[in-house]
Amino acid sequence: MVRSNPLLGASSTSITPAQDINHTQLMFQLSQLSPEQLQGLITMAAIRGGTHQPPPPVPQEPNTQLQHSMIPEGNRNVLTSGQARGTRFSGFEVDLRLISEAHIVSSVAPPGTSLNAPTSRREPPIDPSLLETSEISLVMAEVKGLRAELEELKRARHSASDDDGDADDENDGRQRKRKRTKRRSLRSEHILSVKTDRLNREQKETRNELHGMVKREMEELTGITKKEALPGPTTPVPAHTDETNSDHRQLMHSKLDRDVTDAKNKAIIMRAAELVFKEQTDGDLRKLKHKDVKFTEADLRSFATAVLRSWKRRFEAENNGEKGRKAKLQAQKNKRHQRQRTLKAARLAVAELYAEIHDGADPSCLLETDWMTEEVSSLDTSDDEEKEAHRQKMVQAARLTEKEIECGTVVLEKIKPLFRSDEVDGIYEELDQLGRKKQKESGKTYARKPRADLGRTRVQPPAVSLYPFMVRESWFEDHIAGTSLEDNFEVLPEDPEGFGSNP
DNA sequence: TCGACTGTCCCTGTACACGT
DNA sequence: ACGTGTACAGGGACAGTCGA
């Protein structure tokens, strides 16, 4: 099979299978090298390709001699044949195939005898002062960039496959090869974008710190802050004045009516990630609490994208009628759910006390958020008159004073789930009493929104499986049996210890 | 009287799952 | 890869209590 190496470009001639170096594989191998090793390879390739200006005579180091001597006769012919085409990097022509071949040669050499020798014992192959001005330094910059990119990919692969981290670097080449063939997803490319429960404490803290930094950077770049209304598509872009250095600069204008992939949005994401990455990888400017947690610029881009999505959502809720309505509904639902959780937490707080009174019967397992009474502040209707009439009923049921009514005191209406049996209702009632008693004994009483019970109930079965003793028989027979709801809930095989049929 | 502390309620932002 | 729906943690606002 003959195919061209994409890295060598269109001008590349056909090459034999032996010379066919997979781009990714090659870059991966190159990434394993130290800067000195790369420097050696580039120098060798340049010399063999005839593009390298010979440096002034310098004492030949043992290792550079070894590098040279390690090239077998056949490969030397290739290197010197001049048939391989070059790739132009910043005005300097260097043959990547030559580099790759030189690398293959070096990679099979015994450790310590070639390029694999420890960095500390190696000297630069040419006078370092020459590198500063020579074209090689430009190539080095290019290669350095590629190395950084490959480091990101390598780290991502490690984090995606397991949590062993750097230990994988010690694995043999066989395992590495297996890993390389693994399919990559975008998620796996981001160290800090893996599921947060797979991160350790330091990584989580660093993640939060970086997220905050990226967000602040984006706020500065766009002028968008939490308190202000989000700018619309036609809002003029104001000039930003930095009072500390009188630097007048134009704010970057986000397009919140467009996707995060929109060119302007993308530019903001890239810029914010770049600025934070530069700052937080700079030894002097780095402010992160944990100095050794690794992260990539891709992580920061991912965070920046999430920030922009969040703004976009807010913008749409403010400006799109249908989406705004949905957002309001969701907020209402969240609020109700939150109250159920509060109720659960309050009952959980006295569960131990309950168990002490009832021979160790622990009611904690009966406290699912989903099983708690709902508390709603208004009727779900768009009819204002109906709403007001319902409020009046609540106000009366809660026995509000005239003053409280005038102040618009909010009353929460209890909506009891109909599935609950008398026994479980009794347990909840006792827990609530214990809670009230506990608070009374502490001598502290706090203002709470008044509650009203107008007798409304919820027929829907809960999503969480029920214990048999919790189910009200009449509810099942009247509302569930024989209906489509019958398949919508599940009853556990037996009651918990201390309750129902398991006293 | 005032500041510190605490409980309650709710908003906001983040994380995750899922569909496209 | 992206948008969307949803759950939930964190923290702010507010109000009541307590002790100096």
TrEMBL record:
Region (Disordered): 108-129, 155-207, 228-248, 318-341, 438-457
Compositionally biased region (Basic residues): 175-185, 325-341
Basic and acidic residues biased stretches: 186-207
Bias kind Acidic residues: ranges: 162-171
Recorded superkingdom: Eukaryota
Protein's recorded name: Uncharacterized protein
Source organism of the structure: Rickenella mellea
